[in-house]
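User: Predict Helicase C-terminal domain-containing protein's structure from this.
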Amino acid sequence: MALICLLSSHSHLTDGFICQADCKFLIFAHHQPMIDAIHQHLLKKKVKCIRIDGQTPVAVRQNLVTDFQNKDDIKAAVLSIKAGGVGLTLTAASTVIFAELSWTPGDIIQAEDRAHRIGQVSSVNIYYLLANDTVDDIIWDVVQGKLENLGQMLDGQEKTLNVSQIETRPSPSKQKTLDTYLKRCSTSTEAQPSPKSRRF
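Assistant:
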């Protein structure tokens, strides 16, 4: 339920930008209910898309990738961060969107690299959709901390996901725990956190 609430809070982006975009895009999520909701939302908006998650047979995945790469009418790829984040070349996309974050920075970087591959001729914009005052804030800080530690160990330099904030909206009163967020989403669909999108 919480994930569906989060998708609703991001729907202004899908309605306003994605569904009318001329470019192809990748949209990553981590949880199956979120992947399901995104996929259904795009189909409802008549956005032709492919979907690759853990339930997609390996033998079928390359055919889906080929369709995405070659067919102009297929605009979106809905991908699991784990299953769709490695081993696929999706350079037809010039926009990458993360509807959810992984706790592991390597998963995020690998997923970003689906569009940053040999053969990419366009610049790629990457967006992270983070809802204010939710578990997203915690995950983002953890991911940044892990990247900083990794950078210090490897070359003595701090590494972070450098982003510029695109949009900030007022958010509800500060939430302290994940339980509070889950309870708020399950009892009210009106008091949803406002999203902010970030990009490189």
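The domain at 2-199 is CATH 3.40.50.300 (Rossmann fold).
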